[in-house]
Task: inverse folding
């Protein structure tokens, strides 16, 4: 399971936003703010949301959290566990802490791309060239090793069936080209940066915008900022999501409007959707200047079909292993 419910739920607090797709829980420990609009500063604050949301866990009667705590207190096994961990009866605070602690263990890593970074460092160390840059042959080495080790979690995402030298070599070239495009022509690294591929900032891509207008009431980050501290540039801006384990978390974008990674790349290829708040990184300033004041022109990337495929392959190479072992088996905690 992909730790998102793969369905649209209204978020309660921002109910006027209409359908929202659950953000990925994977690696949320590394996210500075939680929810698409960043309204929760911590996982402890985030985990208090769902029990009071009418479309998630709340029947709309009385106080949602009082009811949730009552349900926990009615179960002797929960009473015993809370006593052991917190020394109290089940409380809202304790429940939120426990859920946040669990979410922090839902991690993914060791993808084909991560292993390739390690392989590259080893190679450059041996070659003594000091040129720390990934090459297609690094991906090829890692893919070949994964094939020998029958490491299906890494290979399934990329659709690798078996040992075929020519196919492996071609796939390695494609992933590497995707990486170069991601950090170059396609400009994805303007926002998706670092180990988790997110700048933890908020940007308006015009998701859901039609005919130059955002959907009614789609305030994004602007709506979540406190009165007096609102930044009008963040109307319709949402948090840059990380790009790990994407194959387990479709559909994409805050409204779940894009079903596949191919659709995501097509969306960026046309520069997102025009609207008055489109992020500066998504805009074609030359063409805006030529079109006169107040023109908003999305920057088309001009990707070829092959380049689109390479970008998708690079994102698939970020699918990794899920680290659940320590939760399933506490004896694996380092002593
Ligand atoms: C201007 C910053 C910015 C740039 C440039 C950018 N992204 Fe994004 N990306 C975002 C934000 C913000 C979202 C969420 C937008 C929303 O839902 O409204 C997002 C969403 C995504 C998602 C969906 C992830 C999910 O969990 O739903 C994928 C995949 C993605 N971007 C890939 C890319 C690729 C590939 C590129 C380059 C072609 C790129 N991004 C360029 C900021 C950016």
Result:
């Amino acid at each position: 399971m992909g730790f998102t419910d793969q369905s649209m739920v209204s978020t309660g607090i921002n109910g006027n936003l209409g359908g929202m797709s659950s953000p990925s829980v994977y690696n949320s420990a590394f996210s500075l703010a939680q929810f698409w609009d960043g309204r929760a500063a911590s996982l402890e604050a985030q985990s208090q949301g769902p029990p009071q949301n009418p479309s998630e866990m709340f029947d709309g009667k009385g106080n949602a959290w009082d009811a949730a705590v009552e349900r926990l207190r009615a179960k002797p096994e929960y009473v015993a566990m809370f006593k052991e961990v917190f020394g109290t009866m089940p409380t809202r605070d304790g429940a939120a802490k426990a859920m946040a602690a669990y979410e922090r263990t839902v991690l993914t890593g060791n993808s084909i791309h991560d292993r390739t970074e390690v392989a590259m460092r080893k190679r450059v160390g041996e070659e003594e060239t000091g040129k720390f840059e990934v090459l297609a042959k690094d991906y090829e080495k890692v893919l070949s090793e994964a094939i020998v080790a029958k490491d299906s979690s890494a290979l399934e995402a990329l659709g690798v069936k078996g040992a075929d030298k020519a196919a492996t070599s071609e796939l390695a070239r494609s992933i590497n080209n995707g990486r170069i495009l991601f950090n170059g022509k396609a400009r994805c690294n303007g926002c998706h940066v670092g180990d988790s591929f997110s700048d933890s900032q908020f940007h308006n891509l015009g998701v859901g915008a039609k005919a130059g207008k955002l959907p009614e009431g789609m305030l994004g980050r602007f709506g979540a900022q406190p009165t007096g501290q609102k930044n009008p540039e963040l109307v319709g801006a949402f948090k840059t999501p990380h790009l790990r384990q994407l194959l387990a978390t479709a559909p994409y974008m805050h409204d779940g409007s894009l079903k596949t990674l191919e659709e995501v790349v097509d969306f960026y290829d046309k520069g997102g959707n025009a609207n008055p708040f489109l992020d500066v990184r998504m805009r074609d300033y030359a063409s805006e200047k030529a079109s006169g004041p107040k023109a908003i022109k999305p920057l088309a990337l001009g990707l070829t079909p092959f380049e689109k495929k390479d970008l998708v392959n690079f994102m698939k190479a970020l699918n990794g292993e899920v680290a659940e072992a320590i939760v399933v088996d506490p004896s694996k905690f380092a002593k």
The chain has a mean pLDDT of 87. The two ends are 30 Å apart (CA to CA). The pocket of heme C is lined by residues 24, 186-188, 190-192, 203, 205, 207, 238, 240-241, 243, 246, 249, 252-254, 261, 264-265, 268, 279, 281-282, 311 (CB under 6 Å). DSSP finds 13 helices and six strands in the chain.
